[in-house]
Amino acid sequence: MTHKTQRFLTGITTSGTPHLGNYVGSIRPSVAASKGANATSFYFLADYHALIKCDEPARIQQSTLEIAASWLAAGLDPERVTFYRQSDIPQIPELTWFLTCVLGKGVLNRAHAYKAQVDKNTASGAEPDHDVTAGLFMYPVLMGADILMFRATQVPVGRDQVQHIEMARDMAKGFNHLYGDLLVLPEALIEASVATLPGLDGRKMSKSYDNTIPLFSSRDQLKKLIAGIVTDSNGPGVAKQTEGSALFQMYQAFASLEETAAMQRAYAEGIAWGDAKAMLFERIDRDVAPMREQYHALVANPEKIEAILQAGAARATALSGPFMQELRHAVGLRKLQASAPVTSKAKNHKAAKAAGPSFKQYREADGQFYFKFLSAEGKLLMQSRGFVSPKEAALAIASLQQQGADALPALQGQLDLMPGVEMLEVAAALSLPISASKDESHAISG
Ligand code: TRP
Fold first, then answer.
1. Mean pLDDT on 137-144
2. Could you tell me the pTM of the whole model?
3. How far is CA 170 from CA 48, 144, 175, in A?
4. 76 lines ligand 1 (CB under 6 A)
5. Could you tell me which CATH class the domain 7-196 is placed in?
6. Does 2.10.70.10 match the CATH number of domain 216-299?
């Protein structure tokens, strides 16, 4: 399958303040991955997921702001990455329901997070489902919808999330089996090289262990927290072990190979812990300081972040909207006048395939005339900019219908490829007979 592009997607639950472990394990590698030449990336703020863990509205809002600001300060380019807030995409909860209806309940019974809670309850003599909301139970389905909605192929996650990706595959298979090959099976991407950062006490840095260093602590706070990292009691001049040293692992997560080697020598030569901590502080601060300024500027300017998220939501829904239409049709949620009843999924699928790609013309509230180009499967491939008259829009469409991809150079600046869509895919669709129609869902006058 040559048309298969790699599409990265990952979500960040908005229930806390980002710490250095989030930065090293998720933010930094994801931002780096998004800069790859062929990457299309979908990164989002999982605020529906946050509701499962957190019932403090102000905290959800604050965390959403802080996490969005952290990703942007860390170099996420919202032009390259489709960066959005989960709750701005109404198709996600809708797909959650579709998936709920194809996934066996037993699969969810076996989910690690749910099972852990049940085991804990059983051990303490409580009811098995004590303190378990239906939201916690359904967590993997919502996550499956996040992934399947945008046809992600690669999902960078920590090991603890791998089971969820497997479940998403199960849901996609179940759905496809019933309704046709619509959902893409995702793969977990577990970066072996991505460090699990130790926390202040040497265990994995995690909010649940209360051993974190906030990514954007002030210099003073950062210094103070680093001073509190556990070490052994060897004094200055006594050789230190790098293995099992949280301080060394943290240093390594930020340092170059040469810097790491130098620290290794310093350990062997018996560097005093106070000096090693000072080196760690300076090394981390060197990376964090420039981002810190940006972070504070962003947090002080929530409207700007909101605008970025709204733009991301517009890009995301340009994909999820049409795709959901296709999914609704597939399961039978249809306008009553639309096509005769189809009885089997095979026929259903054929009918979808038989229709070719299409142009849809419409007028926006800004008074301008636009069109979209959709694949035979209803996927949005291109979107035009506004034309002042319907005639100009029609001329552009006609040239595409007649000349196919050859018409594209002349239309440069008037058409945008949707994020994640490959030129090859567009060219292939343009080589087929294409229908054109006015889109009834938009009012077209004039
Ligand atoms: N469950 C993930 C976590 O806690 C967050 C998340 C929600 C996610 N939806 C996702 C991650 C979709 C990857 C893909 O880390």
1. 97
2. 0.75
3. 22, 9, 9
4. no
5. alpha beta
6. no
